[in-house]
Amino acid sequence: MASLLRSLGKLTALGATVALLGGIAGASEAAAPDAPPPPAPAAPQEHAATPIDAPDQAQLALLGVLRRERQASDALPDGARAHADARLGPDVGANAGLSRRALRTALGEDLYVVPGRGWVCLASSEGPSSCTPTDRIEQGYAVALQRIPSGVRIGGLVPDGVARAEVRGAGGETATATAEGNAWRADVPFEPVAVAWTREGAASEVAVPVHVPPVAPTAPVATGP
Amino acid sequence: MDRLAHRAALAAACALLGVLGVFPGAAAATNNSYCGVLISNGTWCGDGTDHFYTSNSATYPGTGDVWVCERLLIANTSTQRESPVCAYNYVSQTFSPYVWQTEAEVTHYTGVNHTVNGLGVY
To answer: Is A164:A179 a contact under the CB 8 Å cutoff?
Structure first.
C-alpha cells in the first residue's frame, strides 16, 4: 500500500511538472507565434552584425516589454538613436526601430530595451548602453553601473516575473529598485558588490557580483549629452 | 597686411569652430579598434593615441561572463573625462563634443587575465 501511495505521489508530481512545462511552452508559443527562432549571437568584436528585423522567440518569451505594441514614445531620442545605429547595430545586431521605452527615472533619464541578434541592449537617453546575450539575462548578467557624485548609478534588465532588484553593498547595505518594463535603475549611496533578484515562482534567487572601479581624478564639468 | 590678418583671423575662427564641433559632418567617423590582448584584472588598456572621441566600447569576446569597463582620459593626463561605465560582456557609451582630445581605454574586473576589445570612434 505504501509502495502504491509512493507511486501515486510520483505520478502526481510528474503530472504537475508536465503541466507546468506545458504551460510555460504554451505561453512562449502564444507570445511569439510568428517570431523567428533565436539566431546565433552576434560577435561584437567583429563589428559586422546585421540588425535584426524582429525580436526572436526567446526574447519575446523572456521580456514582456517586447511583446507589447510599439508606441511613438518608444523611439530612441536622436543621440541614442545615432549611437544605436552606429554601434549597437554593427556590434550586436540591435535594431533601434524595435526599441521599447521601459521606464523614466525621477531625474528624467529614459531607459530603452533594444533587441539584437541573440543579444538585448539597455540603452539610456543619457549615453551609456549595455548589451547582454539573451540567454544570460535569466542568469542575472544584464547589469551595468557608473560612479556618480552621490554614489553609484546601477541598473539592468530582468526577465518577466521579477518585480524588484536588490543592490547589496560590501558593508551589508541594501537598496531595492522596482522593475518596470523589464528594466530597473537605482542610485545608491554605497559601493555595490552584488545584485540579486528572485523570479516569481522560482525556488532560489539569482545573484551576480558587480565591481565599481576605484576612484580616479575625473573632469569636474558634466559633459554628457 | 590687412589680407594676412584677415586670413589669420579666418583660420583661427575655423579652428575654434572645428574644436567646438560646429562642423560635425566635416569628416566621416573613424573606428579605432584597440587592445584585443590579454590584460590582468583592473589594468586599463588603450592605444595611447589622442582623438576627439565620440564613443567608446568594451567587449569581452570569450565564453562566460566578464565584467568590462570603458572610459576616456583627457589626452596625456590621468584625468577621466567621466567615471567609467561597466557591465558584463559589452558596454558602450556616446560622448558629446569636447574641447580637449581624449584617449580611449578598457579594462575588466573578473578573474585574472582576459582579452578585452576596445573600439573608439572619432
So the answer is: yes
What is the structure's pLDDT at B84? Answer: 98
Residue B76 is classified by DSSP as T
Region B25-121: CATH code: 2.60.120
For chain A positions 62-121, those within 8 Å of chain B (CB to CB) are 79-80, 82-83, 86-88, 91-92, 119
Q: What is the mean pLDDT of residues A171-184?
A: 98
In this prediction the ipTM stands at 0.84
What global pTM score does this model have? 0.83
B39 lies within 8 A of chain A by CB: no
Distance from CA of B13 to the nearest CA of A (A): 23
Q: Which residues pair with B120 in a beta bridge?
A: B32, B56
What are the grid coordinates assigned to A128, written together? Answer: 551609456
**In the predicted model, what is the mean pLDDT of residues B21-39?**
78
What residues does each domain of chain B span? 25-121
CA distance A156 to A184: 6
pLDDT, tens digit, 9 for 90 and up, residues A4-29: 444 444 444 444 443 333 333 334 44
Q: Report residue B58 as a C-alpha cell.
A: 568594451
Contacts of A131 in chain B (CB under 8 A): 87, 89-92
**Best residue of B35, B60, B88, B116 to probe chain A, by most A CBs closer than 10 Å:** B88
